[in-house]
């Protein structure tokens, strides 16, 4: 089943049911990042700060978040283009 979107007089067919993979990946990444931020606040090794503390952990947290975002965008784009099958 598809739905139509009309833009500037042209039809655009988009399959329904393709949102599940994107939402699942986003939810998993969000939960992992929240766990990481809570761990950074609770354990003294991280300097007891979500985004502050020692430079090593601060930069590592930022890089992990950036990599997760890039992976989410890539997988969602591949799925939207039909290279990855949605469940």
TrEMBL record:
Keywords: Ion transport, Membrane, Transmembrane, Transmembrane helix, Transport. One of its GO terms (cellular component) is postsynapse. GO terms for biological process: calcium ion import across plasma membrane. The chain crosses the membrane at residues 20-39, 60-84. GO terms for molecular function: calcium:sodium antiporter activity. It comes from the Eukaryota. The keyword Lyase does not apply. This is Uncharacterized protein. It comes from Lymnaea stagnalis.
């Amino acid at each position: 089943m598809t739905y139509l979107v009309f833009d500037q007089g042209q039809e655009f067919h988009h399959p329904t049911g393709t949102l599940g993979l994107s939402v699942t990946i986003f939810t998993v990444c969000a939960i992992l990042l929240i766990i990481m931020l809570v761990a950074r606040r609770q354990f003294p090794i991280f300097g007891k700060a979500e985004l502050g503390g020692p430079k090593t952990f601060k930069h590592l947290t930022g890089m992990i978040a950036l990599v997760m975002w890039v992976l989410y965008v890539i997988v969602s784009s591949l799925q939207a283009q039909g290279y990855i099958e949605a469940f």
